[in-house]
Amino acid sequence: MRGSPTLCPVPGQFFVDERVLESIYTFLVTRPLTTSPAGQRILARLRALGPFLEGSLTVSTKRCGRPTCRCATEGPLHETALLTWKEDGTTRTLHVPIALREDVAAWVDEAKRLKQLSHEMSMAQRAFLIAQRRQRAR
Questions:
Q1: Is residue 30 part of a domain?
Q2: Are 133 and 44 in contact (CB under 8 A)?
Q3: Is residue 97 part of a domain?
Q4: Phi/psi of residue 82, each to 5°?
Q5: DSSP secondary structure string for all residues of 30-72
Q6: Do residues 65 and 77 touch, judged by C-beta distance below 8 A?
Q7: What integer pLDDT is reported at residue 16 of this predicted model?
Q8: Which of 55, 58, 74, 103 matches a 20 to 30 Å C-alpha distance to 126?
Q9: Overall number of domains in the chain
């Protein structure tokens, strides 16, 4: 039943009433935006972002280790794709299957775009604050 509280199946965790979550979401979405026209344009670009994934995707070649494989002698080596990221100060690596390489590459590109837009938004907001301060000083 929508809107009724449910107990969390994990001991020691809390449940969230969906009505509260919906009201928080509504509040966050409908709050007035205080930014410059440049900031508004950046926000529009942020809303257009798709799924993203922080990390680096690298494709390299290697020998598989089987003595009867073509790569053991003169044949071409096998390609492998690895996603690498930092987690709690430790470098983590995950093999990316061939079927997901294009998707993961697109997600990594979106994360880079997000980082760039975040930087641009910060610069626009600083410029907005400086302009507001100058206007009030007059």
A1: no
A2: no
A3: yes
A4: -130, 135
A5: HSPP---HHHHHHHHHHHT------SEEEEEEE----TTSGGG
A6: no
A7: 55
A8: 55
A9: 1
Average pLDDT over residues 84-106: 96
- For residue 57, the cross-strand partners are 83
Question: At CA 100, angle to CA 96 and CA 106, rounded to 5?
Answer: 100
Using CA atoms in the order 46, 52, 53, 59, what is the torsion angle rounded to 10 degrees?
-120
Place of tokens 């995950």: 94
Q: What is the mean pLDDT of residues 69-77?
A: 87
The verdict on residue 27 lying in a domain is: no
User: Which amino acid type is present at position 83?
Assistant: L
- Which residues constitute the domain of residue 65? 35-137
Query: What is the band of 133 on the pLDDT scale with cuts at 50, 70, 90?
Result: confident
Coil, helix or strand at residue 91: strand
Phi-psi region of 51 (alpha: psi -120 to 50; beta: other; left: phi over 0): beta
Return the bridge partners of 79, or none: 61
- Pairing of the two strands 56-62 and 78-87: antiparallel
Classify strands 90-96 and 56-62 as parallel, antiparallel or unpaired. unpaired
Within a domain: 63? yes
d(CA 28, CA 31): 6
Token digits of residue 41: 């344009």
